Amino acid sequence: MDGTRRPTLIASVQRALHLMEVVVAHPSGAPAKQLARLAELPLATTYHLLRTLAHEGYVTKLPDGGWVLGERLADLYAQGRAQMTLARVRPALTALRDELGVAVYFAVHREGGIELVDVVDGPRERRVDLSVGFDEAAHATALGKCLLGQLDEPSRGDYLTRRRLLDLTPHTITDRRALSRGLVGRDGLSYDHEEYALGTVCVAVPVADASGGLTGALAVSCRADRLARVQGAGRRLHETAARLSRLAALS
């Protein structure tokens, strides 16, 4: 004997997982008898497992008697995709933070709103105090402007008309026409010149893929007196954005 201990396995869990694999392979639904045969399980065991899985929301029974995946599994899948995206992109955000000494943000436009995926900061450059969320203050942030600038006019108009443009600082742009004209600068960057918080400026670049499946933005924030340094790193921001686009597409 090599002394290697075999892991302790729970047979009932294995049976449930094998049964789930069979259910996944039949998206239109399959009756319990067919599932039992394909999973090589006794019919009684299959019924017990299906009832338990249905109680927990992992499978559901159709009116015709077939079994399909339940809503809870779909929720777990969506959460898992989000975590995989986070695991892929955070190293790139951290590297940019360490190189430029700024707080770094990554957000996407999803289901009509702005979703902040991740933020990395440090003891010297803290993230902006998000007293007003990015979704409610897109007009006042470089991140929000960058995302709005990637939408077509009907989608952008719908977004802006459904939200009140809050006047957060003396520099906040609350006129919709003026805002639309200044979403993206000639250098391809979007800016927040102390429009969200006094003393803080932000710069953002688009994060998108060729297929149009991703509408995202990479942004950095810093003290107002450091804006020139961040502007000088525009090429580095675009390089990181291109990397994020590739990484997010893998999730």
From TrEMBL:
<keyword id="KW-0805">Transcription regulation</keyword>
<keyword id="KW-0804">Transcription</keyword>
<dbReference type="Pfam" id="PF09339">
    <property type="entry name" value="HTH_IclR"/>
</dbReference>
<protein>
    <submittedName>
        <fullName>IclR family transcriptional regulator C-terminal domain-containing protein</fullName>
    </submittedName>
</protein>
<dbReference type="InterPro" id="IPR014757">
    <property type="entry name" value="Tscrpt_reg_IclR_C"/>
</dbReference>
<dbReference type="InterPro" id="IPR050707">
    <property type="entry name" value="HTH_MetabolicPath_Reg"/>
</dbReference>
<keyword id="KW-0238">DNA-binding</keyword>
<dbReference type="InterPro" id="IPR029016">
    <property type="entry name" value="GAF-like_dom_sf"/>
</dbReference>
<dbReference type="InterPro" id="IPR036390">
    <property type="entry name" value="WH_DNA-bd_sf"/>
</dbReference>
<feature type="domain" description="IclR-ED">
    <location>
        <begin position="72"/>
        <end position="251"/>
    </location>
</feature>
<feature type="domain" description="HTH iclR-type">
    <location>
        <begin position="10"/>
        <end position="71"/>
    </location>
</feature>
<dbReference type="InterPro" id="IPR036388">
    <property type="entry name" value="WH-like_DNA-bd_sf"/>
</dbReference>
<dbReference type="InterPro" id="IPR005471">
    <property type="entry name" value="Tscrpt_reg_IclR_N"/>
</dbReference>
<dbReference type="Pfam" id="PF01614">
    <property type="entry name" value="IclR_C"/>
</dbReference>
